[in-house]
């Protein structure tokens, strides 16, 4: 297109005036100050304002942003698919399908036995790789030089890395052609699994050996990837997540420099993987804040400009995934993926919508993969470096997160570092407190899990899953001489000769370190317990628990609270039958023709004042064992309770507590 003259679209319009806007907004809010009415607080205590301007930026924000080096040739992020099917042959089929469908990288989640460094048995919660033969089956027909490989092997990382390298050698792929990350992260593994097979010092030494091996022989591989998913699933706030990542990174940076590496070389061996939720701007700010903090750490450590570039992966958060109405997870994942891409992630893993239910089948993995392809290729999100940069809101939130996370990071370092914070239980305490606050917000409806705590679908269709069988453990039939120092080169030679995972781990074991693992959660799990109880009730009685919604008055008077009550009760798996009545006297007559377990009065406050007490009394007289009222108790609570109202349900109440008490009263929670 030829360039044309500028079109003066703003001509004739007065310059916007903030004071005038605030006056109009205050009038619309019926006199409430704008900041008071429209500001919200994040779980960290950061206040989100309704409007941001240039003067809302913190001093030095522009300089802080400019000081973070970013690659200027970015035209995509890597689509990194998670693979956790226990059977390597099925894993091979899945990997080949993903690569053909556009994935650039694979992330291998080993089973929990391997992650704990105890691979004697085989689990079904991850891919089972015990021998070189398993790896050869997994990567049969896969060009290891053309796809980036990520490992989630926990305490088995050095041994699994050796088997991967032996597999590449068997395929004729030189080590210099491999790209990706071995994913060593012993401190986070201790928090997630509650166990290390040797003391922290020994684990850090082994990590340093692996990093030096990578630096010398594997230019495209990183030894370390700090995955904070366990902390995030335990309830961590965004700034806690950043601080834990930074403190863990510093612990590894020290271990690597103690092993003789320069700061620049050590920094290149450290990558990060953060979990991102559905609040797009908060997730964007989180990723940008971590980049800023890590760049500052490397700068303070004497690292050069290129060493300050953070290798950053993102995963859609496991804690937001639901087992109920799992199809909604695809929407949550889309918002998270958008945030990860705009936030500058180098690679993104979108968890399939059925992740919380079991091993995903082909359609779920395809949708997860194509979500990224559409956002990246059709929406063009990867074509701009730091697309959120310059937004007053994003810049201020990034600064707020960075400052708060930096303060916590300094506190952790001043108290002895991340290893001591884990061993002392401090991290666990922080996470438990954060989860209790988050659960409180969910219980009172301030936070919502769509399809679970609000607007549940009691007739949801079953979600298909992949078929999984427990593989038989494979053990070496002969003895292997593996040097006791766990030298990476010796481990690779032993792996190539056929040593199984348990044998390769022998020199890496010592006196085990055991602690309580952090308690990981999903946001909807407490409500899903009630839904499970409803399913058991349906199996026992042939129907779900049911409520009769007695709708008093006209549709204009009862519809809002009737819709609310139906969604409220459905969160516990209680169905609803809606019956409109014109007068309180008619309310009691509705019970005779309906098989229900409770009754809910639904109408406006005006109708309640005139008719609720009489309606409740009539329902009780007709045999209703439990009468609820949709609305707050107000000044007439005593009168209404005397008339027979047992529960009040309303916006802002402790919904989870009320539903739990109601389920107990109904007998739903009996085994």
Description:
By secondary structure, the chain is α/β, with parallel strands linked by helices. Helix content is 46%, strand content 12%. The protein contains 26 helices and 17 strands. The strands form four sheets. It has an eight-stranded parallel β-barrel with strand order 3-4-5-6-8-9-10-11, surrounded by seven helices. Helix 11 (238-258) crosses helix 16 (392-414). The longest helix is centred in the middle third of the chain and has 23 residues, at 392-414. The radius of gyration is 29 Å and the shape is globular. The termini are far apart. The mean pLDDT is 91.
Rounded average pLDDT:
91
**Terminal-residue CA separation:** 71 Å
* Uncertain residue segments: none
Number of helical segments with 4 or more residues = 26
Number of strands: 17
Strand line-up across the major sheet: 3-4-5-6-8-9-10-11
Report the major sheet.
8 strands, parallel, barrel
β-strand percent reads 5-15%
Which assembly state applies to the chains in this document? single chain
- The helix/strand class is alpha/beta
Helix content class: 40-55%
Short description:
This protein has about 675 residues and is of the alpha/beta class. Strands 3-4-5-6-8-9-10-11 form an 8-stranded parallel beta barrel, surrounded by 7 helices. It has a 5-stranded parallel β-sheet with strand order 14-13-15-16-17, with helices on both faces. Strands 1-2 form a two-stranded antiparallel sheet. The N and C termini lie far apart (about 70 Å).
């Amino acid at each position: 297109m030829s360039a044309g003259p500028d079109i003066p679209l703003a001509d004739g319009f007065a310059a916007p005036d903030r004071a005038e806007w605030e006056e109009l907004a205050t009038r619309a809010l019926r006199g409430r100050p704008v900041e008071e009415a429209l500001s919200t607080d994040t779980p960290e205590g950061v206040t989100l304002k309704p409007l941001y301007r240039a003067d809302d930026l913190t001093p030095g924000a522009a300089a802080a942003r400019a000081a973070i080096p970013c690659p200027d040739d970015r035209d995509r992020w890597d689509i990194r698919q998670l693979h956790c099917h226990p059977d390597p042959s099925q894993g091979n089929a899945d990997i080949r399908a993903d690569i053909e469908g556009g994935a650039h990288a694979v992330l291998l989640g080993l089973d929990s036995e391997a992650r704990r460094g105890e691979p004697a048995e085989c689990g079904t919660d991850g891919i089972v790789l015990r021998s070189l033969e398993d790896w050869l089956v997994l990567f049969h027909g896969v060009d290891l030089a053309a796809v980036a490989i990520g490992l989630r092997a926990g305490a088995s990382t050095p041994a699994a890395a050796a088997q991967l390298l032996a597999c590449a050698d068997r395929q004729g792929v030189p080590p210099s052609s491999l790209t990706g990350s071995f994913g060593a992260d012993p401190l986070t593994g201790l928090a997630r699994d509650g166990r290390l097979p040797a003391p922290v010092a020994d684990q850090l030494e082994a990590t340093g050996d692996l990093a030096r091996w990578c630096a010398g022989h594997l230019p495209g591989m990183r030894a370390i990837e700090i995955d904070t998913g366990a902390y995030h699933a335990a309830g961590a706030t965004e700034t806690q997540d950043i601080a834990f990542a930074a403190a863990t990174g510093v612990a590894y940076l020290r271990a690597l420099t103690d092993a003789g590496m320069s700061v620049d070389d050590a920094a290149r061996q450290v990558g990060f993987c953060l979990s991102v939720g559905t609040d797009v701007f908060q997730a964007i700010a989180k990723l940008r804040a971590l980049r800023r903090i890590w760049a500052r750490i490397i700068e303070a450590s004497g690292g050069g400009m290129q060493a300050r570039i953070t290798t950053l992966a993102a995963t859609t958060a496991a804690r937001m995934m639901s087992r109920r109405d799992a199809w909604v997870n695809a929407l949550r994942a889309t918002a998270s993926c958008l945030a990860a891409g705009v936030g500058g992630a180098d690679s993104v893993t979108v968890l399939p919508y059925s992740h919380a239910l079991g091993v995903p089948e082909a359609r779920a993995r395809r949708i997860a993969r194509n979500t990224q392809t559409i956002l990246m290729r059709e929406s063009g999100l990867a074509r701009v470096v730091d697309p959120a940069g310059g937004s007053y809101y994003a810049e201020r939130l990034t600064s707020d997160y960075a400052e708060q996370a930096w303060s916590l990071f300094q506190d952790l370092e001043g108290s002895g570092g991340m290893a001591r914070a884990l061993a002392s239980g401090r991290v666990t305490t922080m996470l438990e407190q954060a989860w209790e606050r988050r659960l409180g917000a969910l219980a009172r409806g301030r936070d919502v899990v769509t399809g679970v705590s609000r607007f549940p679908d009691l007739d949801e269709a079953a979600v298909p899953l992949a078929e999984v069988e427990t593989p038989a453990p494979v053990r070496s039939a002969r003895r292997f001489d593996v040097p006791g120092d766990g030298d990476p080169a010796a481990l690779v030679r032993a792996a190539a000769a056929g040593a199984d995972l348990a044998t390769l781990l022998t020199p890496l074991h010592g006196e085990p370190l055991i602690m309580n693992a952090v308690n990981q959660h999903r946001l909807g799990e407490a409500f899903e317990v009630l839904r499970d109880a409803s399913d058991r009730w349906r199996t026992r009685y042939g129907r779900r628990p049911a409520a009769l919604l007695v709708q008093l008055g006209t549709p204009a008077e009862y519809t809002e609270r009737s819709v609310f009550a139906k969604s409220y009760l459905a969160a516990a798996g209680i169905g609803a039958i809606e019956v409109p009545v014109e007068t309180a006297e008619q309310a009691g007559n509705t019970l005779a023709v309906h098989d229900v377990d409770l009754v809910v009065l639904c109408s406006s406050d005006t109708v309640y004042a005139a008719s609720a007490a009489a309606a409740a009394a009539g329902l009780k007289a007709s045999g209703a064992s439990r009468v609820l009222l949709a609305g707050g108790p107000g000044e007439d609570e005593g009168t209404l309770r005397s008339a027979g109202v047992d529960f009040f349900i309303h916006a802002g109440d402790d919904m989870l507590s009320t539903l739990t008490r109601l389920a107990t009263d109904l007998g739903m929670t009996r085994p």
